[in-house]
Amino acid sequence: MSDRPPAVAREPKLDTTPPRGMRDVLPDEVEVRDRAQATILDVYRRHGFQRIETPAVENIQLLTRGEGGENEKLIFKILKRGEKLTAAQNADDLADLGLRFDLTVPLARYYANNHGRLPQPLKAIQIGPVWRAERPQHGRFRQFTQCDIDILGVSSEIAEIELILATAEALLTLGLTDLTIRINDRRILAAIARHCGFAEGRFDSVFIALDKLDKIDKAGVVKELEAEGHAPKAIGELMRLLEDAGVLSHFLASGAEPAAWQGLQRIITTVAAAAGGGVRIAFDPTLVRGMSYYTGPIFEIRYADSASSIAGGGRYDRMIGRLLGRDVPATGFSIGFERVIGILTEHPATTGAETDRLAIVFAEDTPHLSTILERARDYRAQGRPVLLELKRKNLGRQLHDLETRGFTRIGIVGDDGTWQWRGPTA
């Protein structure tokens, strides 16, 4: 009989990559994200906004009420638990909760639930993750961060002006200095669709197709509208209106939606005068925004020559009323946080990274640890980030790694307590 111990069965190797459409974020990018978030929060708070938080999970009935547009098809649903799951009768009855797909729908519930304890009007900041079960692709993930500001309780276009100026200032402060704001109004879009002869109850499908104009061009929009069964005459009139600036100007000047048009002109004129350099704003009749809950002005910001927006939003006056029983005027603007971080990561000079980062390198058995900790504490009290690192055998490689990571001043503590500095003297 062998004295060899019995073999232990190996567990199958676990795949350590994140779930598809999710990702791990490494320390350097986390620093960029933290600095960007702090900058945005500082600007928004100076504009009078206050941060709030809502749960990551909401009731499935809230998320599927028809206000999320195409995103409602992308909800990560959470199965019922225990006896409730066993008692479910069909597939539609299996889930009672879902991960939020944006921050606006949860905000409406939050306001309906807490309005008696909130300032009026409410100027809210939300920054947090959202989830959409869409097909992952470059720059598009199933979990991503949204960064919103909303004004609830103001019906005047003063609210839109505030949102646009605050968001533009936040982006400019991050170093994104070539911004183009596109603006339209859902009421004007509806007037255009009505004028062209589209069926009143099918405007949303027209808007969904038009919203893809940047991706599939006009020929693609025409093809999609035809596939949806819209009248060829209406499609042709829409294309003629959008292609001929003179025809469109005459239509707008004829007073189809005078209040909406005058409101847009006020927003454009005021923002153009107040935003300063690096910001342009213009009316764009093809701007749609994908959410079906928009009721008035809608807007997006593009950076430099990018084909994609880095911020977008609009007015959604009727959403809260469906929950509260009375309408509350509401409008919001969301920074595409992941796209902004992508730009800042590609162009580090725009990130506002700290230039005075200290590292202190010392031996594990140093008799001078108390002195080292005291000096580190003093530097931190001055607002300087300080990293403490034990000295490695290959000191040269260690110092090179620290410099590569952005530590511009490195203090090396000798066995006798003397300090040698690489970089400017601290």
Structure characterization notes:
This protein is of the alpha/beta class and 426 residues long. The chain folds into two domains: 27-350, BirA Bifunctional Protein, domain 2 (2-Layer Sandwich), CATH 3.30.930; 358-422, Rossmann fold (3-Layer(aba) Sandwich), CATH 3.40.50. It is 39% helix and 20% strand. It starts with 26 loop residues before the first helix and ends with a strand. The mean pLDDT is 89.
How would you describe the shape? globular
Number of helices: 15
The number of distinct structural domains comes to 2
CATH architecture level-2 label of the largest domain: 2-Layer Sandwich
The description of the largest β-sheet is: 8 strands, mixed
- Classify the secondary structure makeup into a structural class: alpha/beta
Order of helices and strands: HEEHEHEHEEHEHHHHHHEEEHEHEHEHEE
- Nearest-integer average pLDDT: 89
Q: Portion of residues in helices?
A: 25-40%
CATH class of the largest domain: Alpha Beta
Q: Hey, roughly how much beta strand do the residues contain?
A: 15-25%
In short:
With 426 residues, the chain is an alpha/beta fold. The protein folds into 2 domains: 27-350, Bira Bifunctional Protein, Domain 2 (BirA Bifunctional Protein, domain 2); 358-422, Anticodon-binding domain (Rossmann fold), CATH 3.40.50.
Question: Which properties best describe this structure?
Answer:
426 residues, alpha/beta, Rossmann fold, 2 domains, 8-stranded mixed β-sheet, 20% strand, globular
